[in-house]
Amino acid sequence: MRWVMSVLPHRYPLLLIDRVLAIEPGRSIVAIKNFTVNEEFFQGHFPEHPIVPGVLLVEAMAQAGGLLLLHDDPHRDEKLLYFGAIERARFRRPVVPGDQVRFEVEVLRLKAAHAKLSAKALVDGVLHAEAELLSTFVPRGAAAK
User: Fold this and answer.
1) pLDDT of the residue at 101
2) Which candidate in 45, 49, 75, 128 is catalytic?
3) Sign of torsion, CA 44 47 50 54?
4) Measuring CA to CA, which residue among 70, 68, 91 is closest to residue 21?
5) 106-145 burial string, b = 16+ CB within 10 Å, else e?
6) 25 Cβ contact partners less than 8 Å away, ≥ 6 residues apart
7) Which CATH number fits the domain that encloses residue 117?
8) What gap in Å lies between CA 21 and CA 32, rounded to an integer?
9) Based on the structure, what is the number of domains in the chain?
């Protein structure tokens, strides 16, 4: 977890990666998130039938992609990744409290300022969500402007 926090700027409650299981620099990453009933969003989404909001699954896939793209960049402290687009997002099955989600992300295209990633969210080997994510690298100082 400490390593994840050294690469990503996200913090609780929006840090959605617990651990990286495998990484192939410039190619792919496998990361996990354990969703527990204590997650704050379950109180309102939905109280009688709690499920992880789809937008948070997409955000978690993007965070795994951020780890892949930034982990070995010597200038990562100077950069942020912004969404450029979310394409072909599909939510196949709900993620519920107690699920461990395995995020598998692959680089489709990587340029100096942009990246396109293919991402999947699986529970027990079953596909629950997928998307193609386009990201733009921006300088951290310019990000607030």
Assistant:
1) 98
2) 45
3) negative
4) 68
5) ebeeeeeeebbbbbbbbbeeeebbbbebbbebeeeeeeee
6) 68, 71, 72
7) 3.10.129.10
8) 7
9) 1
User: Helical H runs in 19-139?
Assistant: 54-70
Assess contact for 102 and 29: CB atoms under 8 A: no
pTM: 0.94
Query: What is the token pair recorded at 132?
Result: 């193609």
Q: Computed from CA positions of residues 131, 4, 70, 145, in that sequence, does the dihedral angle turn out positive or negative? A: positive
Residue 64 and residue 116 in contact, taking contact as beta carbons nearer than 8 Å = no
Strand order in the sheet with 100-110: 19-24, 28-34, 100-110, 114-123, 126-139, 79-91
pLDDT for 140 equals: 86
Residues 62-78: what's their mean pLDDT?
93
CB 28 within 8 A of CB 39: no
Domain that holds residue 82: 2-143
Active site includes 45? yes
